[in-house]
């Protein structure tokens, strides 16, 4: 007769059925066990062939990584707990004391903070260049370890000619990394243009539902494995299995969402351009966009753009307070429309503030066009503009 087991022993062990599940299960486990000394020994000999511990590898996270690598046409991806974890890890992996990073102006504000406040502590130097100016980039490249790109750039949506920039960086043997959060692999695949590594804040369009913070790096296997074996493991910014599952759920609708964001944002940007209270619109899809020819190389435009409103701070306050559907908020890429008035970024008034350093116009308003009906969104903006007239 089979020996009866104690309930606490029974509860401690599950059989791992997959039930032919159509959606990958969430492997919410911290560690993975081995059946024998020999099996564990073979895992130590070839760590990539086994799962050990979820700070290293987790099957749910791996499913997400494989999907995003394939979308970006990269060999391998590595997921992180935030876009900033991916960004800081990618930069640190390429630098040591004495290294120089060349970074485009108007990068994401916390990338700027990392490069100007944390990296210098370790003797890593940064030079900011106008990403629209190939000659300026070329001049900065000699002796650099890393060229950090973001195309389009935050807030002002300046583009870099990625193919030309990648070729220049190769000549100077400088590693290239790009923040591709805005375009997503649906509209831009920088690895195909010669860029070495792509990163995303997956908190934005990749997740797409404003319910998780995550990041990811994609590149050649050798580069990802180098990061895996050191920075990823010891800095510990891993993605949780549940959040990987949320991202996989978000990814399923990425192409549909991007098409809808593009359609609505372009419609609203075109209407804003002719509005009497709007001084200029920074949207890649408009004929008036100064880099329109370069913009046409992208597969499309997303739902995030900015415009300059013809109003002072008091007017901007009345405008945003009147909006009903556009919620005041940072971040973007989710279902819901958001408004961010750049004037709020000027609280700190020194060169460590990127808004000050990069001369962001104080009348700049950034809009995240969500998936609501664009006519409702336009009516909301018109109500906001009407508030400008009231005193
Ligand atoms: C939000 C954002 C980041 C940072 O990502 P987190 O997931 O918030 O850490 C980086 N780059 C861009 C362009 C972003 O919008």
Task: Give an account of the 3D structure.
With 391 residues, the chain is α/β, with parallel strands linked by helices. Helices cover 38% and strands 15% of the residues. The strands form 2 sheets. It has a 7-stranded mixed sheet, with helices on both faces. A 5-stranded mixed sheet has the order 8-9-12-11-10, with helices on one face. Helix 4 (83-94) crosses helix 9. The protein is globular.
Search tags:
single chain; 391 residues; alpha/beta; seven-stranded mixed beta sheet; globular; binds pyridoxal-5'-phosphate
Overall outline: globular
Amino-to-carboxy terminus distance: 89 Å
Q: What is the β-strand count? A: 12
- Contiguous runs where pLDDT drops below 50 for at least 5 residues: none
Mean pLDDT across all amino acids: 95
Described by strand count, sense and barrel closure, the largest sheet is:
7 strands, mixed
Distinct ligands: pyridoxal-5'-phosphate
Based on CA atoms alone, the radius of gyration comes out at 23 Å
The helix tally amounts to 15
Estimated share of beta-strand residues? 5-15%
Q: Label the structural class.
A: alpha/beta
Q: What sequence of helices (H) and strands (E) makes up the elements?
A: HHHEHEHEHEHEHEEHHHEHEHEEHEH
What share of the residues lie within helices?
A: 25-40%
Strand order of the largest sheet: 1-7-6-5-4-2-3
